[in-house]
Amino acid sequence: MEQPEWVWLTEYREGNPDAMGKLVEHYRRPLFGFILRMTEGRDDAEEIFQEVWFRVIKSQHRYHHRNFKSWLFRIAHNLVIDRARKQRPMVDLQAQGDDAGDPLENRLPATEPEAGAMVDAKALGQRIAAAVQRLPPEQREVFLLRTEAELPFKKIASIQGTSINTALARMHYAVGKLRDWLESDYQQLTGMTP
Amino acid sequence: MNCHTARDHLLLAQSGELSPGRRPPLDRHLAGCAACRAYRDAADGMAAQYRETPLERDVSPFILHRIDEEARRRAPAPAAPAARERPIQPGILELWRPAALSGLAALTLLLLGGLLLRHLSAPSAPEVAQRGEPLPSPAEPPAPAVWTTDVDAELHQLWTLLADAGAELESANGPDESLESLAGDLLELEGWSI
After folding, report:
1. B86: distance to nearest CA of chain A, Å?
2. Measured between alpha carbons, how far is residue B9 from residues A13, A33, A92, B36, B112 in Å?
3. CB within 10 Å: which end of chain B, N or C, has fewer?
4. In this complex, how many residue pairs, one in chain A and one in chain B, have their CB atoms less than 8 Å apart?
5. Coil/strand/helix, residue A97
6. C-alpha angle A40-A81-B56 in degrees, rounded to nearest 5
7. How many CB atoms lie within 10 A of CB A186?
8. Mean pLDDT lowest for which of A58-62, A82-86, B89-93, B100-104?
9. In B, which residues are within 8 Å of A32 by CB distance?
């Protein structure tokens, strides 16, 4: 069965401008979620989101492969990288540490609920999102491309310009860190360890 | 299978990239390894929880509007409808067609009859040779058009009428075109250049 995004893209090429709106809406959550988590603030995220679609609209006539989603997120990845390079470099949480060598990430106040507070599913989701923000950029990107965009690891590796084994390793590290940071939340929610 | 390989295969299975042949060994490992099952549940659970959590911010309507504007500005022009044939004026066609059909039919019969009569009445080459007259050279072009008979004059008049009908009769098809083509061929046989 024809992917809906390919149908809409074809309709747009045939002169139906409304079809591009369907594409934008279809990818609004996953694409903006990816960009929002990969950037520092809302203004950046919206600017990049807009620029991604401007580039899609400008270049769509040259794109003839069937994997539109992979192309879309590759554009987003490149724009996020470009924006990060132009701005003040972010603090590398793993590289810098105190004299004891303890990484900065371990000295930041943890986002733990108040003592005795119950954690519901919605709050857990928000805490997962906050924890994702703490991941190193490469691991965060793999997690987001897999979770938000639901791209296969082969495509993720291609977007990041690395091997599939490296992409898998980054995902392992991301899942491991999230489990460590959210262990107490999971225990409160399910009585089980994550 | 060790846990490291199992967790790689687990991630690939979740993304749909694990080949079918590698599924049974993975299932056997998971059946016997609680740690890998916990890893699987954690990875699945966090991803699902993350996806269900709404974004703290969404794209502003202003940005969506700008994208829509750009899409409309650059939308390809709809494909032009197939060029329509020049509208035929029914009145002229209705007026000329019956006359043209009748004339072409008559022309065909006259030309065939004329050719037959000429063939029957013309002296054969041996007869010409017996008279001592020079035989016409086969390589000689036919004599230029000279109106010598009433039939020829009528044929030429009819052909002129057909030429003047122009586009209206060009749209004719089927028997009309066949008769016109036959008439042209017969006139060429008579030495007329059409």
Report:
1. 26
2. 40, 27, 30, 11, 87
3. C
4. 118
5. strand
6. 30
7. 20
8. B89-93
9. 55, 58-59
- At residue B173, the pLDDT reads 46
Lowest mean pLDDT among A58-62, A96-100, A186-190, B5-9: A96-100
> Using only C-alpha atoms, what is the Rg of chain A?
19
Task: Tell me what ipTM this predicted complex has.
Answer: 0.78
Picking from A36, A168, A186, the nearest residue to B55 by CB comes out as A36
- Closest to A145 measured CA to CA, from A123, A130, A164, A126: A164
Q: What's the residue count for chain B?
A: 194
Q: Which member of A17, A49, A147 has the closest CB to residue B71?
A: A17
Residue in A57, A60, A185, A188 to test binding to B, most B beta-carbons within 10 Å: A57
Mutate to test the interface with B, among A29, A37, A140 (most CBs of B within 10 A): A29
Q: Which residue has the higher pLDDT, B12 or B81?
A: B12
Please return the burial class of B187, using the count of CB atoms within 10 Å of its CB with bins 0-12, 13-18 and 19+. buried
Report the residue from B43, B66, B70 with minimal CB separation from A175. Answer: B43
Is A175's CB within 8 Å of B42's CB?
A: yes
pLDDT on residue A97? 41
Residue A113 scores a pLDDT above 50: no
B43 reaches A (C-beta below 8 A): yes
pLDDT tens digits for range A46-80:
999 999 999 999 998 888 777 899 999 999 999 99
**C-beta atoms of B75 and A172 within 8 A:** no
Measured between CB atoms, does B80 come within 8 Å of chain A? Answer: no
**One-letter identity of residue B44:** D
pLDDT classification of B49: cutoffs 50, 70, 90: confident
* Residue-wise pLDDT tens digits, B22-37: 999 999 999 999 999 9
Give B39's contacts in chain A (Cβ within 8 Å): 175
Segment (H or E) for B158: helix B150-165
Q: Please check whether residue A177 is in contact with residue A135, taking contact to mean a CB–CB distance below 8 angstroms.
A: yes
Q: Nearest residue of B to residue A126 by CA position? A: B53
pTM for this model (two decimals): 0.62
B140 touches chain A (CB under 8 A): no
Confidence of residue A28 (pLDDT cuts 50, 70, 90): very high
